[in-house]
Every structure is written in structure tokens, then in C-alpha cells.
Amino acid sequence: MPKTSSFSPAPPLLCTPAAPTIFSFLSAIRLDTHVPLRFTATLGDATRTGQGLLPPLQALRPSASSVTIDDLRNWYNAADKLGKPENYKKRIVEVANGFKAGEQLSAQALTVMNQDTFELEAISRLSQIAQRIGMVLGKSDENITQFLGKIYGITFNTQQRDLTILQKNGEIILNLQSGRVQTNKLTPQILQTFEDANTQIDRILTKSQTQQIDIQR
Predict the structure, then answer these.
(1) Is the pTM of this model over 0.90?
(2) CA distances to 34, 87, 123, 172, 174 from 76, in Å
């Protein structure tokens, strides 16, 4: 009978010509609630995902029987980029070593692994959209691009892989330094807001291209 590799995670590290239609869109949506994407690591939360933002984790992630050592390597890399403390990453290494020795991954370890990789993917997606908004609507000065709306502000440096998203009141929603998470208060609602803005940009750019084609005819 295979052994089960237990996992007791450390506490999450949480440091407490423009298109006017897009400006209006980003400015009009106000978020009064903050439900962090950061998940607790209890078995009672095993089925909790991004509040309906994405399909359930079980549909996206490997089951205990299909986990590979590559999944555990990806977990370690995700934890590193999320800014997890060293003792947290050390426990991942211990779990991975036990897995290689034939121990079965526990349900709790699987849940935490899925949560970390889900969180990183959500942050990566938001970063991509934020950079696109900055490129289309913002102003660039050398390597720094800035966009300032009525609700959200975006600043990023692609060379140094720095990104900051903040609200009008100065509250930092997401801060990346050299590609690593320093502050993360991302919520499913905020990510959906940026997804909708990205869709609006697609529509405006498509309409603009169509108008240019009509003019050239």
C-alpha cells in the first residue's frame, strides 16, 4: 500500500490617440468587494476555485493518480514566482522527493499545488492584458509605459519585467518586480473586468481596420 506524502504549507506571502470607449469602460466598473484569488490550504476548500471565473480546478488540473514529477517542478517554479517563502518551497522539494521515492501525493498537497498554479496563471493572464492596454492606450517613455484611467492605473517596464496595477485610491492590486509577485490582491472580478476590456479593444481595433479598408477602396 503506497505511503501518502503529507503537506503543511506555510502561510501565503501577501504584502499587505486613445480610444475613449475603453477609458469609459474601465472607469465605469467599480468593485466594492475583494475576494482574493489566494486560496486557503484546508481540505474544506478543496473544491473552491476562482468564484466561477474559470472552470473548476479539477477540470484543469491533474488528479492524484496522474501527477508527474514535471507537475511538481512546475509547482516549485510557480511558488517561486509567487514569492512564497523559502520554507514553503523547501516543503515542495520534500514532497517531490517523497513522490520520487514512491509515496502517493496527498489530497492536501494536490490541492495546494493546483491552487498555486491556478493563481500564477491568473496573474500571468492579467499581466498580459494590462500590458496590451498600456500599449494601446497608454504613453511610453523609453522602457516605461503608463496608462491612467479613472479607476485603474497601469505602469510596466518590459525590460525589467516590472508591473504595477493600482486603483485610483492608491491601493496596489498587483505588483511584480523582475517577474516575481510582491503584492497580489487580484480578484476574479478584477480579472474579468480586464478580460472585458481586452474584448472591447479587439472590437475597436477590428472596427478601425475595417474603416481603413473602406477608405482605401
Answers:
(1) no
(2) 27, 12, 16, 26, 21
